């Protein structure tokens, strides 16, 4: 490992990192490049050895693998297992990798033949139920969000580079939203999953008066029943509750169907 | 003539998504030359079935990580058309401004970070940070402005949050728009510098005649909605888009393919330029002239130049849009949604070409049927036939395998394909 940067006078490891994409929009990787203001500082912390969306060179010598996307085909399972063998730290990067993301919405039909026919007609294309990485390999670290928030990614990568523990917020988005002084969206007639979704995004959507859709999955000890009560009090149907809960897959184990 | 050639590129780099190139020449004959999309499909068109209309823009925006704003706006347009809603002028202007800023960030990402390394002889933008610091800094600056503008208007640069059916959840502050105006004037100068840089790049002199499909301009260079046109003379209405796209399934690709008057057609910046160049701002026309782009250009590598011309176009028009918005008082940001059963189509020129979403709703606003036709899926057959022709022409001139490989890669990159989008 090359040592180029120091932190408090101590030489800093510059870990070799690799980015990989599975079934996804590749938007989370793009968030890294979308980081014009401090992209160069970020790059001084790590050595990028694999990033197909941005570079032609590639290597299997890496310590941290950022893996975006959900797993939906057998060849992806094998590719993911290969990455797991090479990486010391495997990071599930974004909601698709953490929970299946919007891709898992196709699972709700419990009928992949219908799903294939609806899109490809009589020429069906191979697919499995969309699954998070953890279904197939051990995941060391989760970075939530659709998309991931670049400030959070930087903080996590910095902590990993420094060998510090990574602590994600356990409280819900609702707390960040209140701290940001926003009008409660329920008061202006909008449904919101903020009371039970894990914080860390700095209430990104609700700051923009757009109700939370739960892309970061549940906060610890999320009180789903209480949230349902709030939704009912504001006359939101069971169907609209389900829309929010099932959108990104993070609440899957908490849904009573 | 070259006797044999073997090119096999698995998961081409510096493009969005997963695609392969294979070229095999034996005894001087092109035995195989193909562009194959192997991306895993996500099945958005099935996901949405049975969902309430409110889900459509949220979920469909996730089709693409580069042009999520384009997908969200197309989705909103399809829903509004289905419900018979007509957006106010303020909403239309803000949406167009937002779209322009996405076009700018996407084109700059492609031109500098994905395409330029080929012309400067590197494998990525990273070595250029050392060798061409001014260029990288300038490109990052333009992208930053465009992304900041998307944050200000759409609430977020990727998967926007303020854009909703009926308008916006919140409006930008006028001071923020004034700030953008000043920065856009600076960026206009940076684009001149960019044009000077691109003049030094040797674009391959490759031509294969094809058909170009885009929105049809009516006094202005078109981006959101309107009628459809092809360079072979086909003219259709927005809601007749299926007659333009004619999607079919191929056994070797996970992307659907399209055809119109010929076996393939092209969409994107070059198609828009070829069909609507007469509506460009003089400043944009000047850049086209300086870089040798004249309509109708059948050189796919010129799509790079057409994107640069469009950067100038959107920067000019955005300044005019902001001035107009600043001159008028803010109107309410959001109109009430009234449901009705029916079908709605949205056609929008997103960075890589014309995008269509079509939704059918029942009386309760639940989705019965969903269809999305993506620019790159419309381009995939054209890319395939270009590679065949490229292999034939360059093999005939005795080019080495690695040169043919690089040219084929550069050809695919010129289309700026968004492969996961095409296999949504």
List keywords for this structure.
heterodimer; A: about 260 residues; alpha/beta; Rossmann fold; 2 domains; five-stranded parallel sheet; two-stranded antiparallel ribbon; about 30% helix; globular; B: about 425 residues; alpha+beta; four-stranded mixed sheet; three-stranded antiparallel sheet
Order of helices and strands of chain A: EEEHHEEHEHHEHHHH
CATH topology of the largest domain in chain A: Rossmann fold
Compute the average pLDDT of chain B: 95
Helix and strand composition category of chain A: alpha/beta
Instruction: Quote the average pLDDT of chain A.
Output: 92
Overall shape of chain A: it is: globular
- Beginning-to-end CA distance, first to last residue of chain A: 50 Å
Record the strand order, biggest sheet of chain A: 4-3-5-6-7
Please give the CATH architecture of the largest domain in chain A.
Answer: 3-Layer(aba) Sandwich
The helix count of chain A comes to: 9
Q: Considering DSSP H and I runs of 4 or more, what fraction of the residues of chain B is helical?
A: 40-55%
Q: End-to-end distance of chain B, in Å?
A: 41 Å
Structural class of chain B: alpha+beta
Give the low-confidence spans of chain B: none
Low-confidence stretches of chain A: none
Helix tally of chain B equals: 14
Task: Tell me the fraction of residues in β-strands of chain A, as a range.
Answer: 5-15%
Largest sheet of chain A: 5 strands, parallel
Structure at a glance:
The complex is a heterodimer of chains A (257) and B (424). Helices cover 31% and strands 13% of the residues of chain A.
Layout of SSEs?
The complex is a heterodimer of chains A (257) and B (424).
Chain A: E1 3-7, E2 10-13, E3 16-21, H1 27-33, H2 39-45, E4 47-51, E5 64-68, H3 74-86, E6 89-93, H4 95-99, H5 112-120, E7 141-143, H6 150-162, H7 173-179, H8 224-233, H9 238-246
Parallel strand pairs in A: 3-4, 3-5, 5-6, 6-7
Antiparallel strand pairs in A: 1-2
Chain B: E1 5-9, E2 19-26, E3 29-37, H1 44-47, H2 55-60, H3 68-83, H4 89-119, H5 126-131, H6 133-154, E4 163-164, E5 167-168, H7 174-199, E6 211-215, E7 228-230, E8 235-236, H8 242-245, E9 265-266, H9 269-276, H10 282-290, H11 303-327, E10 342-350, E11 353-361, E12 367-373, H12 375-396, H13 401-414, H14 419-422
Parallel strand pairs in B: 6-9
Antiparallel strand pairs in B: 1-2, 2-3, 4-5, 6-7, 7-8, 10-11, 11-12
């Amino acid at each position: 490992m090359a040592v180029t940067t120091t932190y408090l006078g101590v030489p800093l490891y510059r870990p070799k990192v690799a980015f990989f994409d599975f079934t996804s929009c590749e938007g989370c990787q793009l968030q890294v490049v979308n980081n014009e203001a401090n992209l160069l500082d970020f790059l001084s912390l790590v050595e990028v050895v694999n990033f197909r969306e941005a570079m032609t060179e590639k290597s299997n010598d890496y310590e941290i693998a950022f893996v975006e996307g959900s797993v939906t085909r057998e060849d992806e399972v094998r590719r993911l297992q290969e990455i797991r063998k090479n990486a010391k730290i495997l990071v599930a990067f974004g909601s698709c990798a953490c929970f299946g993301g919007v891709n898992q919405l196709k699972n709700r039909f419990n009928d992949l033949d219908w799903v294939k026919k609806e899109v490809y007609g009589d020429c069906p294309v191979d697919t499995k139920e969309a699954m998070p990485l953890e279904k197939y390999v051990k995941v060391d670290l989760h970075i939530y969000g659709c998309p991931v928030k670049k400030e959070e990614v930087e903080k996590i990568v910095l902590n990993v580079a420094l060998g510090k523990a990574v602590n994600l917020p356990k409280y819900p988005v609702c707390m960040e939203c209140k701290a940001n002084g926003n009008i409660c969206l329920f008061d202006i007639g909008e449904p919101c999953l903020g009371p039970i979704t894990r914080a860390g995004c700095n209430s990104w959507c609700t700051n923009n008066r757009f109700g939370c859709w739960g892309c970061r999955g549940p906060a610890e000890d999320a009180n789903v029943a209480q949230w349902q009560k709030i939704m009912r009090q504001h006359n939101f149907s069971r169907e609209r509750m389900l829309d929010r809960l099932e959108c990104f897959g993070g609440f899957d184990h908490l849904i009573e169907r | 003539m070259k006797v044999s050639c073997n090119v096999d590129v698995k998961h081409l780099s510096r493009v969005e998504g997963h695609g392969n190139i294979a070229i095999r020449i034996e005894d001087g004959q092109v035995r195989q030359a193909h562009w194959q999309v192997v991306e895993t499909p996500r099945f958005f068109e099935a996901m949405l079935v049975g969902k309430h209309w409110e889900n459509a823009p949220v979920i469909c925006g996730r089709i693409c990580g580069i042009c999520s704003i384009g997908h969200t706006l197309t989705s909103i347009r399809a829903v509004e058309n289905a419900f018979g809603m007509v957006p106010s002028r303020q909403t239309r202007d803000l949406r167009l401004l937002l779209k322009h800023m996405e076009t700018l960030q996407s084109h700059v990402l492609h031109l500098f970070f994905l395409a330029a390394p080929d012309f400067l002889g590197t494998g990525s933008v990273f070595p250029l940070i050392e060798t061409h610091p001014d260029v990288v800094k300038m490109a990052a600056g333009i992208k930053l402005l465009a992304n900041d503008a998307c944050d200000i208007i759409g609430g977020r640069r990727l998967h926007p949050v303020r854009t909703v059916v009926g308008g916006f959840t919140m409006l930008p502050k006028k001071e923020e728009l004034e700030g953008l105006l000043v920065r856009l004037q600076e960026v206009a100068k940076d684009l001149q510098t960019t044009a000077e840089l691109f003049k030094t790049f040797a674009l391959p002199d490759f031509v294969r005649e094809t058909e170009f499909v885009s929105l049809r301009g009516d006094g202005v260079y078109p981006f959101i909605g309107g009628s459809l046109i092809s360079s072979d003379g086909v003219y259709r209405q927005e809601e007749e888009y299926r007659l333009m796209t004619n999607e079919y399934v191929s056994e070797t690709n996970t992307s659907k393919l399209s055809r119109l008057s010929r076996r393939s057609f092209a969409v994107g910046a070059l198609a828009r330029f070829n069909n609507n160049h007469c509506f460009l701002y003089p400043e944009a026309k000047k850049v086209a002239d300086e870089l040798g782009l004249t309509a109708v250009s059948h050189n796919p590598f010129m799509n790079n130049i057409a994107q640069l011309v469009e950067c100038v176009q959107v920067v000019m028009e955005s300044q005019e849009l902001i001035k107009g918005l600043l001159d008028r008082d803010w109107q309410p940001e959001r109109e009430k949604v009234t449901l009705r059963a029916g079908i709605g189509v949205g056609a929008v020129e997103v960075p890589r070409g014309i995008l269509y979403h079509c939704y059918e709703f029942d009386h309760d606003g639940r989705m019965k049927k969903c269809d999305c036709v993506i620019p790159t899926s419309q381009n995939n057959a054209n890319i395939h036939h270009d590679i065949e022709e490229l292999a034939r022409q360059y093999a005939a001139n005795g080019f080495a395998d690695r040169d043919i490989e690089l040219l084929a890669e550069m050809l695919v990159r010129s289309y700026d394909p968004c492969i996961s989008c095409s296999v949504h």
